[in-house]
UniProtKB/TrEMBL annotation:
Sequence ranges assigned to domain HTH lacI-type in this UniProt record: 8-64
Pfam families to which the protein is assigned, alphabetical: LacI (PF00356), Peripla_BP_3 (PF13377)
CDD domains membership: HTH_LacI, PBP1_LacI_sugar_binding-like
InterPro entries reported in the protein's UniProt record: HTH_LacI (IPR000843), LacI/GalR-like_sensor (IPR046335), Lambda_DNA-bd_dom_sf (IPR010982), Peripla_BP_I (IPR028082)
PROSITE patterns: HTH_LACI_2 (PS50932)
Protein keywords: DNA-binding, Transcription, Transcription regulation
Gene Ontology MF term list: DNA binding
Gene3D superfamilies listed in its UniProt record: 3.40.50.2300, lambda repressor-like DNA-binding domains
Name the UniProt record assigns to this protein: DNA-binding transcriptional regulator, LacI/PurR family
Length: 328
C-alpha cells in the first residue's frame, strides 16, 4: 500500500515556529488588533511555507462569522458575450482583494440554497435586488450594494442614439424591434423608451413597433416569418432599431429573403456589439455599451462596508459608442 502523506495542521506550524496555535491563526488569517512581533510573524509564515500548510477555509469562516465569498447577484436573463466580459472584469477585481467571487442567479429556491451553504461576506447586485431578497439579507445582517439606475440611463441614451443615427443616414420610417420578455425588461424597456422619445420629437406620434420573442436555437424560420408578415402590413418601413444584436438577426434574414437590399431598402442597427456581428451576411452596425458604468463604485462601496480599502479599476467605455459597419 502506498504511503499517504498526512496533511499538515496548525499545530505542526506552531511547533515548528515555536509559538501557539492561536498565534498561528492570528497571523495566517491576518486577524486585526493583535500584538504580534514581526519576528514571530516571520517564523509563522516561514513554517507554514515549509510545511505546505494552508488554513482550513471552513474553520476560518466559522471564526470570522462569514465566508470570504462575494456574491454577484444577477437576474436570470440570458447571458451574452458582453455580459460575460462584465462578470469577468468584476470577478477579477474581487479576486484582487483576496476575496472569492460567486455568480448567483436570483430566484427564491437559489436564495435558500445559497444561504444554506455559505454566509456571504457581501452581495453585489449590479441590476438591483427584489424586495424579498433584500429583507432576507437584512435579517441575516449580510451587507449588500445595488445598482441598476445607470443601466436605465444607458438604455435611454442608446435608444435615442439609434434613431438619430438612422435619421442621419437618410431613413424616414423607423420601426422598433423589441421584446416583452419580463427577464429582459431592464434592458429593453429603457432602450425602447429612448427610441420612442426620439421618434416623437421627430413627429412620429405612433411609431412602428415589432415585438419579437427572444430567439432560440430552432425558431429562426418562425421569427423570419413574423418579420415578413410585419413588413407585408407595413411596407413603408425603411429601417429597424433593434433592442439588441440578437433581435437584429431574424430581421436581417427576413429582409434578405424578400430580395431587398440592406441598407439601401431597409437599414438595421443593433445594440451590444456581439462577437457574431461581423460574420452576419451583412455586418451589423451597432452600439457598444458598458456592462454597468457604476460597477467600480458598487464594488468600492461594498468593500468599504467590510472595512477594505482598495483602488478598484474596471474598464468603463463610453455609455454608448457607435460601431459602424454595413447594415446602416
Amino acid at each position: 500500500m502506498a504511503n499517504v502523506r498526512r496533511r499538515p495542521t496548525s499545530a505542526d506550524v506552531a511547533r515548528l515556529a515555536r509559538t501557539s496555535r492561536a498565534t498561528v491563526s492570528y497571523v495566517l488569517n491576518d486577524k486585526p488588533g493583535q500584538s504580534i512581533s514581526s519576528a514571530t510573524r516571520a517564523r509563522v509564515l516561514q513554517a507554514a511555507q515549509k510545511l505546505g500548510y494552508t488554513p482550513n477555509s471552513l474553520a476560518r469562516d466559522l471564526a470570522m462569522g462569514h465566508s470570504r465569498v462575494v456574491v454577484i447577484a444577477m437576474p436570470p436573463f440570458p447571458s451574452t458575450f458582453k455580459l460575460g466580459q462584465y462578470y469577468q472584469q468584476l470577478s477579477t477585481a474581487i479576486t484582487s482583494c483576496g476575496l472569492t467571487p460567486l455568480l448567483w442567479y436570483e430566484n427564491e429556491e437559489l436564495t435558500a440554497s445559497l444561504l444554506s451553504a455559505i454566509t456571504p461576506a457581501l452581495i453585489i447586485a449590479p441590476y438591483g435586488l427584489d424586495t424579498d431578497d433584500i429583507e432576507t439579507f437584512d435579517s441575516l445582517s449580510i451587507p449588500h450594494v445595488e445598482g441598476g439606475h445607470s443601466q436605465e440611463l444607458a438604455g435611454l441614451e442608446v435608444g435615442r442614439a439609434q434613431v438619430h443615427y438612422l435619421f442621419s443616414r437618410g431613413s424616414h420610417t423607423i420601426a422598433l424591434a423589441t421584446t416583452d420578455n419580463p427577464l429582459m425588461q431592464i434592458f429593453s424597456a429603457p432602450r425602447a423608451q429612448g427610441a420612442r422619445a426620439a421618434l416623437n420629437e421627430a413627429g412620429y406620434r405612433s411609431p412602428f413597433e415589432l415585438v419579437l420573442p427572444i430567439p432560440q436555437g430552432g425558431d429562426s424560420a418562425e421569427l423570419t416569418q413574423m418579420v415578413n408578415d410585419y413588413l407585408d402590413l407595413n411596407p413603408e418601413i425603411d429601417a429597424f432599431a433593434c433592442y439588441n444584436d440578437v433581435h437584429a438577426m431574424p430581421i436581417m434574414n427576413a429582409v434578405l429573403s424578400r430580395g431587398m437590399s440592406i441598407p439601401d431598402d431597409i437599414a438595421i442597427i443593433g445594440v451590444d456589439d456581439e462577437l457574431f456581428d461581423s460574420y452576419l451576411p451583412i455586418p451589423l452596425t451597432t452600439f457598444t455599451l458598458a456592462g454597468d458604468p457604476t460597477a467600480a463604485q458598487l464594488l468600492t462601496d461594498g468593500l468599504n462596508m467590510l472595512g477594505i480599502t482598495a483602488d478598484i479599476e474596471i474598464p468603463k467605455p463610453p455609455i454608448a459608442r457607435l460601431v459602424e459597419r454595413q447594415s446602416a
